[in-house]
Amino acid sequence: MTDDAAFQPQPDPRQEKFIVDSELLTEDQIDGLVDEYCTRYHGLNDTEHPLAERSRVRTAVKRGDLVVWFDPVENTAGLGAPS
After folding, report:
1. Cβ-Cβ contacts under 8 Å for 82 (sequence gap 6 or more)
2. Is the separation of the CB atoms in 71 and 77 below 8 Å?
3. Using an 8 Å Cβ cutoff, are 58 and 34 in contact?
């Protein structure tokens, strides 16, 4: 009897998303991620001024409530909850 799980292809760890320390990013890069987060999560929800949330989102990044995720497959970064 064989174990089918042993023959399943394993995901490539180089293709998994990972957290980037926000201290390694410039202020402009953080600002861009904060703006993108605000418009993505609030801009389509009938919020008249989605960028008014910038300071709250930036504070969440500094506290670690939101982290920078990098996706090496898509070569993109974005803010999200830590896992």
Report:
1. 19, 64, 65, 66, 67
2. yes
3. yes
**Adjacent-strand bridge partners of 78:** 69
Residues contacting residue 81 through CB under 8 Å, at least 6 positions apart: 65, 66, 67
Amino acid 5 reads A
Cβ partners under 8 Å of residue 60, min gap 6: 66
Choose among 20, 38, 11: nearest CA to 77: 20
Percent of the chain having pLDDT more than 70? 84
Q: Which residues contact 14 (CB under 8 A, 6 or more apart)?
A: 72
Burial 32-61 (b: 16+ CB within 10 A, else e): ebbbbbbeeebbeeeeeebeebeeebbebb
Across all residues in the chain, what is the average pLDDT? 86
